[in-house]
Fold:
Amino acid sequence: MQPLSIHRLNRSVINEPLGTVGDLLKFLQRHPRLFVITGAGISRASGIPTYRDEIGSWQGSTPIQHKDFIRDSDVRRRYWARSFHGWPNVGNASPNQAHRALVKIEQAGHVSTLVTQNIDRLHQKAGHRKVVDLHGRLDQVLCMDCGAISEREEIQQWLWQHNPQVDVRDWQHDLFAPDGDAEVDMDLVDQFRIPSCRRCDGMLKPNVVFYGSSVSKEVVSYLMEKMTRADAVLVVGTSLMVYSSFRFCKLASELAMPIACINRGLTRADAMLRLKVDADCGPTLSALASLLGSD
Ligand SMILES: [Zn+2]
Structure:
């Protein structure tokens, strides 16, 4: 299976048909049951920054690789130190108008499946009941030895209790990534105490799919099957740079299923799109939800 990795775009080969909210409404009327894929762009207005700029280039620090996290205790120490600071920004974030509008679109019967690359649980906080968290969820921690799941908030309390040397006021408050990573002084990292499983003393990992790891085959087959039952695919707020989500557009394209997209800037699937709305997700989805409500 293809591990989570980053694809780079070549701006010169991409031509997409640009559309409006009105075109989206027509798309939805023609294809009423959507397989929806969302990404970091939908959470930006909730104060969670995106990983990439509008041409898909990497922003901020390099993400942690799965094998480095498993093999190297220094990498784990760095992760937990940075996550200790970054987690509250994700844990306390609230859904924005884009999440809420998507709930209305779901209530109107137009979302057959919602799959998100985001690990922030904002779709669930907005009221979506059935969401597939493709890359896992940051509000949980997984024991790599016994499989026990614990709440990230519990681990946060442990980190507070066992790292009294840390004064978070010294840390840079505006530099953190969607996975709760934050910029932290290396001296703090070296002294940082990290948690282990309460049950078996095993290695703890956030319950997310790191780069270099893969989404489980069962989840992929489940989603592929769901997708073939939808009328069309709607991509929201993602440039689809990781294969784990791009694969759904690839399959849709092979099956001649129409794909629409709301995203600022280029996406890896631009050449496959029937419709592209190059705009912010919040106002666009809100306008779409209002148009549906006034039908
Ligand atoms: Zn354990």
